[in-house]
């Protein structure tokens, strides 16, 4: 959007979805969602942030997934951790849901995502480096 008072362009919309995790590193929900959607059992996915447990003002990624068939939470968590940098892993939890809420334009409604109960969430997914050098999530 062009701000005529300042004579500059301002980024609005999707950029605001990017959030910072520990150490100030940025996470784009779209990047994490794209990786989740490549899993054979995942038909749709969305990622949002929740306040981190450290109380330092940073956030944790939370993954919401829709699956076409049953998938073990540990399998999905390990898949995500092996495909992303450790700090982009869904350390805030993995939540299975019936569908991903969307706006009239087809974008993920992140406000509605936060209303989904966390009953199936893995409350903390800590990435661990395995002996082979791949990240695994220890639940």
Layout of helices and strands, plus pairs?
Blueprint: E1 2-3, E2 8-9, E3 19-20, E4 26-27, H1 29-36, E5 42-51, E6 59-67, H2 73-83, E7 94-96, H3 110-113, E8 126-129, E9 135-138
Parallel strand pairs: 6-7
Antiparallel strand pairs: 1-2, 3-4, 5-6, 8-9
Describe the structure.
The protein is of the alpha+beta class and 139 residues long. The chain has one domain: 2-Layer Sandwich (GMP Synthetase, Chain A, domain 3), CATH 3.30.300. Helix content is 17%, strand content 27%. The chain has 3 helices and 9 strands, in the order E-E-E-E-H-E-E-H-E-H-E-E. A 3-stranded mixed sheet has the order 5-6-7. It starts with a strand and ends with a strand. The mean pLDDT is 78.
CATH superfamily: ANL, C-terminal domain
- Shape assignment: globular
Question: Order of strands side by side in the largest beta sheet?
Answer: 5-6-7
**Span of the ends, CA to CA:** 43 Å
Low-confidence blocks of residues: none
Number of strands: 9
> Helix content range of the residues, please?
10-25%
Structural class: alpha+beta
The major pleated sheet works out as: 3 strands, mixed
Strand content: 25-35%
The CATH class turns out to be: Alpha Beta
Global mean pLDDT: 78
The CATH architecture comes to 2-Layer Sandwich
Q: What oligomeric state do the depicted chains represent?
A: single chain
- What is Rg? 16 Å
> Helix and strand succession?
EEEEHEEHEHEE
Concise synopsis of the structure shown:
The chain has 139 residues and is an alpha+beta fold. Helix content is 17%, strand content 27%.
